[in-house]
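Sorry, any thoughts here?
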Amino acid sequence: MPSLPITSAFNDAYVAEAYESYRRDPASVDESWRQFFRLAERLAGAAPAAGPTADAAYLRKVAGAAGLVQAVRQYGHLDVQLDPLGSPPLGAAELKPEFHGVTQADLETIPGAALGFDDQPTAADAVARLRRLYSGTIGFEFEHIEDEAEREWFRRVIENGEMRRTLTPEEKKRILRRLTEVDGLERFLGFAYQGYKRFSIEGTDALVPMIDAAVEGAAAAGAREVVIGMAHRGRINVLAHVLDAPLATIFEEFEEKPATAGVANDTGDVKYHLGARTRRTLPGGATINVMLVPNPSHLEFVNPVVEGVARALQRVPGSADRDPSSVLPILVHGDAAFCGEGVVAETFNLSHLRGYTTGGTLHIIVNNQVGFTTDPRDGRSTYYSSDLAKGFEVPIVHVNGDDPEACLAAVWLGLAYRERFGKDFLIDLVGYRRHGHNETDEPSFTQPMLYAAIKGHPTPRQVWGERLVTEGLVTREEVAQLDAEVRARLAEVHAQVKAGTANAPERVPGDQTSPAATPPIDTTVPGEQLIALNERLLTWPEDFKPLPKLAKLLERRHAALGESGGIDWGHAEALAWASLLTQGVSVRITGQDVERGTFSHRQAVLHDHQTGATYTPLQHIPGTSATFEIFNSPLSEMAVLGYEYGYSVAAADTLVLWEAQYGDFANVAQPIIDQFIVSDRAKWGQDSGVVLLLPHGYEGGGPEHSSARLERFLSMAAENNLRIAYPSTPAQYFHVLRRQALSEGRRPLVLMQPKSLLRLPAAASRLADLTSGGFRPVLDDPSPAIVPEQVRRLVLCTGKIYYDLAAAQERNGHVALVRVEELYPWPHEALAAVLDRYTAIEEVVWAQEEPKNMGAWTFVAPRLRAAVGNTMPIRYIGRPERASPAEGYASAHSEQQSRLVSDALASAVPAGT
C-alpha cells in the first residue's frame, strides 16, 4: 500500500476532490494516490452490497487505515518495551486509530486487501499483526532512509518473517551457557579483586552472544577477519570470551604481573584498554581471525582507527581491488559517548566516501541509560542515544538487553543488510549498569531511584534461565549447576595464578627496534630510472586534455632533471613515490586538498578541462604490483588521521601519509596523536609507520597558519617513539620519504613541511642529489666563502629560516649556518662531526622563527649544551615568549623576522651568554 500523509484527520472534501481529479486524468495526481484509488475501486466492486462503496466516506476510512499502517511501521518502536528495568515506552498518538480519523470498528469493516494484506481478513487483523512485528520485542527505525529500495527491503524481511528464525533448544542452552560465563566472570572478579576497576558488562551481558553471532555470521558469509573497536565497558569480558584471552592472563593483569614486564619501551596500560587477536574455530569447522583494537580512555576515538584497519585488511593482494565482504568492522559504543563525542559523526561521514568506505560497519550501542553520573536529559538533545545515526541514513534497531533472542535477531538483520547494501547498521542494546561508572563508585549518590530498581532486578542470566525453565528446556537445578561449574573453573585458574603455577602465554610485544639503531638504508635511485619515471609521470592519454596552464607548468619538470636542475618539492615527492612503487611499496595519502596540494605544488590528479575526467599518472607506473591511492578527505582531522593511523598499523607494506591543510590543523586531531601515534608501542606493543605532513613556517599568515606546533611533538618524543624532521630541500624530502618506506623499524614520521620553499629556486635540488647520498640529519654550511677556522659564531637552525638567514646581506665569513634536519632522534654523532670542523667558534646560536616557548628551543637547548660542553656560550635568537604563535599583521611579522635575522648574523660577538 502506498504511504499516505499522516494527519490528525482526513478531509472528506479533499479526498473527494483528489478522486475526481483522478477520474478525469489519473496523471493529474501523485502516484501514491493513483495506486490508492485503483485499489479502492477494485475492492469496492467486491464489497458486500450493504458495505462500503468507492465514495468519499469509504475512501476516507481506507486512507485512515493506511495512515495507521504507515504509523505503525514508522513509530511502532515507540511502543516497544525496551527498558529491562520496566520504565514504560514513550508511545505515540499516531499509533492510535483515532489520530487517523478511524475507529477500531472501522478497521474491522475494511478488507485487509484494501491495505495490501491479502492474507489478512480485515484491516484490524493487518494492524494487529504489524503491531506484533513493529511494537513487539524489537524497535525498528528505517523510514528515514532515502532509498525506497532499502525501506522496501526492511518491510519485506520484517513482515515476511525473514529476519527471525526460531532458536533450537540447543541454541537456547548455548546462550544460557554464554550468559553464565559472562556473568560468572564478572561476579568472580568482583569477589577476588574487590575495589579494583574493571568496568563490568553486567546489565548488558547480551553483548557477548551478539558479537559471537556477528563473528559466526561473518564467517558463514565468507569473511576472513572481524575487527572490533570498543571502550572499556565490558572489554575484559569480550577479551575473555570473544578474543579467547586465557583466564590466567586476565587474572595476572589484575595481579599486575604482565607477561611483558621488563620489556624495553613497554610501560603497559590498564587491562581494560588492551587489545588482542585470535583465530577462532566456529561450530561447523569454519575459522576466522578476530581482532580487538586497543583503545585508550578516549571512548570513541578508536572508531576511525578500526575503519582504517578494516580497509587495509580488505585489500586483495597483488591488485588495487578491495573485498569488503572479507572483513567485518564492529564498533561498540557507549550511549553517552555516541552522541556526545564528535568523532562518532566524523567517522560516520567517512562511511560512504570512496577513499574510506569499508562496506558497512555493525554498530552496537551499549546503552546503560546513564553516562557516569549524567542522566540522558542532560547528556543529549535527542530522545534516543542513537538518533545521531539518522543523519547518515543508518538503519537503527532497538532491543531489550534482557531478551537475547531479540538481540541475536537484530545482529542477523544487520549482517543481512550489510551483505545486501554494503552500508552501516546500528543496534541500540538497552540495558543498565549494575555498578557505578566503575566498581569503586557509588551510583546511588546521584541516581538513587535507578539503582534501587537495578538492585532488585535479576541479571540477564537469571532472566534467560527462568525463561528456559518455563519453556521446559532446563530445570532450575541445571541452571544452578551450570553456574557452579563456571565458578569452579574460574576458582581453579585463579588459584594457579596465585600459586605461580598458571601456564599463561606470553603477550608478544611490538617491534622494539630503535629507529636510531636501524641499519643505514640506501635511498638513492639510479638516474636513468628517475628519468624514465619522470617521463612516465609527465605522460597522459592522447585524448586527455589537462588545463593548458597546468600542462605548461608540469612541462618544466622535464628540464628539471637536466644540467640546470630545478627539482622542486612536489617533483621530488612524485619521484620518491614512483620509485617506491617500482620497489613494490604501495603509497596512500589523504588529507584536505591533497590531490592538488594546498599550495598547488603536487598536482597528482589531473583534470581534463573539457570533460572533467581525471587521470593519476602515479597509478600508471608500468611493471609494478604496488598501488597508489590519493584521496581528498572531508573537512576532518580527527577521524581522517585516526583512519590513516589504523590503516598504517595493518598495512606494513604501504607508505601511509596524512597531510594537514596547514600544520596547526593537527591540533584538532590531538587525541589521535597523543593516545595512539605517540604512545602505542609503549602502551600496547603496537607499531605504525604513518607519516604526518604538516605545513609550517612563519610567512605573515597569522597565528593559525604559521606553526605546526613543533614543540608539542618534541615534548612527546621519548624512547625512540617517533621520528621528527624538518627537511629544507626537495632532495632531503625525497630521501626521508624513501627511508621511512624502506626501513624495517616502523615508527611514525612527523615532517614539518614548507610553504614558501615549495618552489624557491634557492631550495631546489638536482638529479645528482637524488642519485647519491641520502637523508642527512645535519647539513653543514654549503657556502664556499666559509673557512671553518675563521668562523666565530655557529648558527644552528632548522627549516625555512635557513633561507632567510642565507639571503641576508650582512652575512660574513665569521658566521656559519648549520641546519639540523632531523630533531628526533637527536643526531648526536652527525652534529658532533660538524662541530669538530669549527675549531675557533666563540659562541653557538640557536635561531628559530617561533617564540621562545615554542618551536625546538626548549628541546634543543640541553642537547646543545651536552654537545658543546659547559664553557661554550649558547644563545637563543628568535621571538620572545608568546601566548600566540605568530603576529596577526604582515608588517609586524616582517619587523620581527628582520630583527631575528639581523641578530643571528651580527658580526660582533657579545660578551657573556
In short: The longest helix spans residues 169-192.
